[in-house]
Amino acid sequence: MEQTNSALSNVKVADFSWAAAAPITTKNLADYGATVVRVESRTHLDSVRITGPFPNDKPGLNTSGFYADFNCSKFGMALNLKHAGAADVARKLIAWSDIVVESFTPGTMDRWGLAYDDIIKFKPDIIMLSSSMQGQTGPYHRYSGYGSQGAALAGLHHLTGWSDRPPAGPKGAYTDAIAPRYSIVALLAALDYRERTGEGQYIDLSQVEAAISGFLGPEILDFTVNERIAQPKGNRSNSAAPHGVFPCRGEDCWITIAVENDQHWHALREIATKQEWSADPRFATFAGRLAHQDELEEKIASWTISKDAFEFMEELQAAGVPSGVVQKACDLFKDPQLSARGHFRPLDHVEMGSLCYNGPAHELSETPARLRWAAPLLGEHTTYVLKELLNYTDKQVETLRAQGVLE
Amino acid sequence: MKNNPQLLSPYRVLDLADEKGALCGAVLASMGADVIKVEPPCGCATRRKPPFHEDQPNMESSLVHWALNKNKRSLTLALETADGREIFEKLLRSADFLIESFKPGYLEKLGFGYEDVRRIAPSLIYVSITPYGHGGPRSEWEAVDINLQAMGGHMYLSGDVDRAPVRVGLDASYLHGGTEGAAGAMVALNHRRRTGRGQHVDVSMQQCIIWTLLNTTMTWQMVQRQEMRGGAVRKERGNTVYTRVIWPCRDGMVLFIPIGGGGGKARSNSYLRFVDWMRQDGYFADCLILRDWNNKEMYSFSQSEYDAVSDQIGEFLKTKTVSELYERAVADRFLLAPISTVENLLSSPQLEERKFFAEAVGLELGQAIKYPGPFAKFSKTPLAEARRAPLLGEDTDRILFELGYDSCETIDALRASGAV
């Protein structure tokens, strides 16, 4: 048996992905030791390379923090896929790999002769994942979009916000946060299957379907079973009261408190003994708290508004009340739990200096993730990949460069 | 369908998770793993979560249970009893994965913490899905979903500026925790195949929520700009101005980020095509092309310049229906999407053509019920059809029999003692 402390050091990935969802997938694989070669093009830049934040708000090809966070630990190769000679290089890279990941608008890989059916002619056991907004088939398969559209299409926007306002929606490209974990599962389960049977396969992942499949099950069933269309509830819950966000001292400071059962309620009362409402018999049962939640929330808010959110959270936790501060980005970097878990990991980048990157949201005891290096500059490892991984000679590399195949 | 090869058919999963981690086992079950839901004799907490079938709460009617425990088997087991422990140890030796979402320390007290289980079954992959992960000062803190959406930083960024922050309207932290656990389990499986060794996959739901922020943490580090929450109108993606994301149209609402959203050529080309459409319909105005909004001048336009464009676009959108806009968005590749309700999903031509929704198998209700479909389409190993969630203890006898408890008397005695 092989001795290794890197979980995926046997896995080789030809990464034709771009934007967020698929690059996040391959970043996670790379952080666990997979060799990932990200193929990019200067003539059609990854949209995330040109999306901020940038240092001093000055856009630069190699300095997007958005790109950086999702592409660390990968090799970067720049190839002009519109050049006739590029397809041959791409094929050699694919022949070297176990896994191909791509996330172009459906049909793009076909135009380069790199569709799954083309690939299996020279690499029959390849595992290929196409990650797209709505899948590779169907009337809307050519629909182009980012994850915020995915969240709206999947029904997440409609459920998020206040019943008397237009939907607030989650922040940003939310399905980009859902699809990657499914993609990792799909790829590594397919790899295990290939190791058992010798067979590769093609995986068509629609971000919208992945989100509905796992995240909207109860809401879908509530419609198909009870004919009820789920509506936004603000911060309220059908099974807990109070359940909401309450103001604290300072500008835009808030705390969440959730009372799921009578035990939580008694715990909350213990630290609110001086508050008249804590002894009000109308609030003694869940049904009573639910029926009078407008009033109860108001009373709690007038109690919490004088409290320091973080001190108050400690007090609530000591009593056993589910609670948590509404943390801002700056708070995350001071969070003692996150620092104990080592969530943010500093990496040095030649143009951006040292920044904290996101480590995975889970840790493995035997083969911990290791963020190996900062995101590649555009084409940083082109020569390395060609020579060291694909066995090109110096002369061949020079020729490709002279022909304009490499960028 | 039964004979289709399955991705994970050789593997057995012991699923002790409540709703906080149940999606993990559901994902593995959809790939053909034998997922045994190990429940206390009084039933798993997920069974008590609303909504319920016909709004009648009982142990078998929770739709959260139906959704998150589909394709699993159910075994009731009292882990605190001597017989229960013996059965569980046998199960551990027969299993490849264990999934749990107890408060850290609980299984340790019962003698089934990761270190204990590792001695019993060294090749087992042990997945813990908890609010703050194991270890660290807050691992035993009380938390439900809303607390984790807050502590992970997403909540601050969602909601209207003149109101309190608002949570994503489903138990996002639990669901992300479940998929993260499944991803970690598959990474660990790859390692096990090469080394024979299992390990502990330790998921933090708070950290899962941080992963939903995308560029928020880099924005803070690089330009010290605190992203502001926003609803229909918001400031994000490192933008310096508020931009409109949700637009009213003739018969509903759409999401559309015409300018100021990043996204490179896809967004700038989308915008040009959209302006052409406005021009054809007589809604052109000079302000629409005043700046190179989506490229060089992405960070240099003012709020009033943006607002002029936004007003003009808003007037135009009010003349169109959601479906006109969506059809045009597909054809002309605008970055625009309808705000779907659950009802819209069930009538989506795209999901219909891909046969995404399918009736569950095994339902005894005399009613055909559609379930959401697979998370991906696999060419060789399609995911399992949805098999309804198990009744409490439905498979207890069968599983005990498989473990070698092969006489009715033995099983009756276990039942009488309260072990199962």
Please provide a brief summary of the model:
The complex is a heterodimer of chains A (407) and B (420). Chain A is α/β, with parallel strands linked by helices and 407 residues long.
**How many discrete structural domains of chain A?**
2
Give the integer mean of the pLDDT values of chain B: 93
CATH superfamily of the largest domain in chain A: Crotonobetainyl-coa:carnitine coa-transferase, domain 1
Helix and strand composition category of chain A: alpha/beta
Uncertain spans of chain B: none
Proportion of residues in extended strands of chain A: 5-15%
Q: How are the strands of the largest sheet of chain B arranged?
A: 3-2-1-4-5-6
Please give the number of β-strands of chain B. Answer: 14
Describe this structure in words.
The complex is a heterodimer of chains A (407) and B (420). Chain A is α/β, with parallel strands linked by helices and 407 residues long. Chain A contains 18 helices and 12 strands. Chain B is α/β, with parallel strands linked by helices and 420 residues long. Chain B is built from 16 helices and 14 strands. In chain B, strands 3-2-1-4-5-6 form a 6-stranded parallel β-sheet, sandwiched between helices. In chain B, a hairpin with a 2-residue loop joins strand 9 and strand 10. In chain B, helix 1 crosses helix 7. Chain B is elongated, with a radius of gyration of 26 Å. The model of chain B has no long low-confidence stretch (mean pLDDT 93). Classes of the chains: A alpha/beta (407), B alpha/beta (420). At the A-B interface, helix 2, helix 6, helix 7, helix 8 and strand 6 of A face helix 1, helix 2, helix 6, helix 7 and strand 6 of B.
Fold topology:
The complex is a heterodimer of chains A (407) and B (420).
Chain A: E1 12-16, H1 21-31, E2 35-40, H2 65-71, E3 75-78, H3 86-96, E4 99-102, H4 108-111, H5 116-122, E5 127-132, H6 147-153, H7 156-159, H8 175-197, E6 201-206, H9 207-215, H10 217-226, E7 243-247, E8 254-258, H11 262-271, H12 286-291, H13 293-304, H14 309-319, E9 323-325, H15 329-332, H16 336-341, E10 344-349, E11 353-358, E12 362-364, H17 382-389, H18 394-403
Chain B: E1 12-15, H1 22-30, E2 34-39, H2 63-68, E3 73-76, H3 82-94, E4 97-100, H4 106-109, H5 114-120, E5 125-130, H6 145-151, H7 172-195, E6 200-204, H8 205-210, H9 216-223, E7 233-234, E8 243-244, E9 246-249, E10 252-256, H10 264-280, H11 303-317, H12 322-332, E11 336-338, H13 342-346, H14 349-353, E12 358-359, E13 370-371, E14 377-378, H15 396-402, H16 408-417
Parallel strand pairs in B: 1-2, 1-4, 2-3, 4-5, 5-6
Antiparallel strand pairs in B: 7-8, 9-10, 10-11, 12-13
